[in-house]
Amino acid sequence: MIKEDEDAQLVEKVVYINRVAKVVKGGRRFSFSAIVVIGDGNGTVGTGLGKANEVPEAIRKGGERAKKDMRAVSLLEDSIPHEIIGVSGSSSVLLKPARPGTGIIAGGAVRAVLEAAGVRNVVSKCLRSHNPHNLVKATLNGLMSLRTPEEIARSRGKTVEEILS
């Protein structure tokens, strides 16, 4: 599900909806949890988990949490600056920069995060667990660990040419 927010031009994507059952005296009580990713498509992305008795309410809560969680990502044109492995729990996500025109080669949970962040050309591989909760967190962890050549040069007190040569 993709929803455009008019005021800030944010892209909202629902990654996963889970139905949870609680067994009580009279039978089962069902509730829902939804993982939502929100981004501006220009280097800012956030994720949120919403839980409620109805699906739309869970999605709304997840969206609110995702907006509060938004963080900036270091991008190089329309790809990522370097290869990185993001880890969360038992999941690992390998992200590799790709040439222009490649597109996003990624699975569902990873693709949603990368599209919302504004990455256009990247290759990814999910290593170990494919749990959507951990995949979203691992992808976000990898994106937060990215650094552009300018940031590395600034931290080392050198020029970009010295770093790249």
Give the low-pLDDT segments. none
Strand content: 35-45%
Spatial ordering of strands, largest sheet: 1-2-3-4-5
Note the main sheet. 5 strands, antiparallel
User: Gap between N and C termini, in Å?
Assistant: 45 Å
Give the number of domains.
2
SS-derived structural category:
alpha+beta
Quaternary form: single chain
Gyration radius (Cα, Å) is 18 Å
The helix-strand sequence is EEEEHEEEEHEHHH
Q: What would CATH call the class of the largest domain?
A: Alpha Beta
Gross CATH architecture of the largest domain: 2-Layer Sandwich
Mean pLDDT: 92
Q: Please, how many helices?
A: 5
CATH topology annotation of the largest domain: Ribosomal Protein S5, domain 2
Explain how this protein is built.
The chain has 165 residues and is α+β, with helices and mostly antiparallel strands. It is built from five helices and nine strands, in the order E-E-E-E-H-E-E-E-E-H-E-H-H-H. The chain has two domains: 2-71, Double Stranded RNA Binding Domain (2-Layer Sandwich); 73-154, 2-Layer Sandwich (Ribosomal Protein S5, domain 2). It has helices at residues 55-68, 108-117, 132-145, 149-156, 160-164, and strands at residues 2-5, 10-24, 27-39, 44-52, 71-72, 84-88, 91-97, 104-105, 122-128. Strand 3 and strand 4 form a beta hairpin. The longest helix is centred in the middle third of the chain and has 14 residues, at 55-68.
